[in-house]
User: Which sequence fits this backbone?
């Protein structure tokens, strides 16, 4: 929602201020300048990035209009999933988890959370970590640096699309200058013509610079920052899993381990202790019924 509001504010203030100063809106309509700037920037973007990042950048731009990937209800489900896993470990031992981690979609523990089971990156991270615990008999001191390295790699990959969009924004003023220079070339070739036509060519060249700068600082740069913020927020789910697993390996009981994980979440999306406790009580009540 804020993306839409911000876009409208930028357009309203820039265009409104221009019109209020007796500018003519049609003078800004320079389709060939737009073709040079947007087409050149898109081509450079395709040259600079592999196909995977190009596709991911597009999907993440659309994702900005949907809000954060994980909401408070999703974090309650994630904490509940971890709690159920730790309870299963406590009752049946680590080896009892093998059937669950080999096929999470068939597992009664994982399949109880249909929203989370569709997040394959998160589920893969959980099952891979549990597989290390089951097969490697790793203690907390051995597992923690390995998880830190994996989280760092995942975060680096997740930030690649926003960095690519940010570089695209940085290039737009340069393409605006290219469009302006080409406009001046056109102007110079028509110096023997009508004075009004020369003025139109100069205006078109200046519009090229204006469009490149506006797209960079008014739209593409802020969108890249919004993508980065969303990625950082989504990464909290993985950090939450890591904290819970390390706490469990340090022999804390399931509820305390999950409470450590809850503290790792950002304040704006973190469920309260009461919310999570009531959720667990509701699950138990539903099971007894």
Assistant:
């Amino acid at each position: 929602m804020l993306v839409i509001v911000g876009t409208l504010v930028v357009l309203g203030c820039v265009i409104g201020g221009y019109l209020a100063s007796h500018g003519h809106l049609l003078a800004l309509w320079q389709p060939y300048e737009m073709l040079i700037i947007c087409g050149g920037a898109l081509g450079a973007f395709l040259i600079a990035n592999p196909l995977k990042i190009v596709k991911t950048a597009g999907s993440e731009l659309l994702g900005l209009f949907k809000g954060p990937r994980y909401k408070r209800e999703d974090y309650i489900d994630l904490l509940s999933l971890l709690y159920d896993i730790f309870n299963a470990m406590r009752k049946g031992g680590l080896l009892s988890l093998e059937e669950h981690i080999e096929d999470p979609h068939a597992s009664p523990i994982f399949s109880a959370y249909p929203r989370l089971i569709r997040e394959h990156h998160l589920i893969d991270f959980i099952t891979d970590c549990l597989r290390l615990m089951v097969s490697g008999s790793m203690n907390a001191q051995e597992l923690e640096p390995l998880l830190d390295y994996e989280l760092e790699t995942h975060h680096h990959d997740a930030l690649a699309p926003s960095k690519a969009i940010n570089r695209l924004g940085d290039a737009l003023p340069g393409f605006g200058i290219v469009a302006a220079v080409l406009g001046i070339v056109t102007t110079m070739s028509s110096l023997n013509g009508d004075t009004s036509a020369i003025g139109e060519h100069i205006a078109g060249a200046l519009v090229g610079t204006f469009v490149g700068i506006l797209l960079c600082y008014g739209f593409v740069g802020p969108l890249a920052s919004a993508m980065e913020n969303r990625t950082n927020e989504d990464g909290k789910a993985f950090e939450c899993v890591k904290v819970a697993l390390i706490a469990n390996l340090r022999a804390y009981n399931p509820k305390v381990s999950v409470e450590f994980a809850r503290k790792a979440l950002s304040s704006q999306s973190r469920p309260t202790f009461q919310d999570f406790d009531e959720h667990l009580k509701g699950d138990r009540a539903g099971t007894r019924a």
Q: What stands out?
A: The two ends are 41 Å apart (CA to CA). Confidence is low (pLDDT under 50) at residues 284-289.
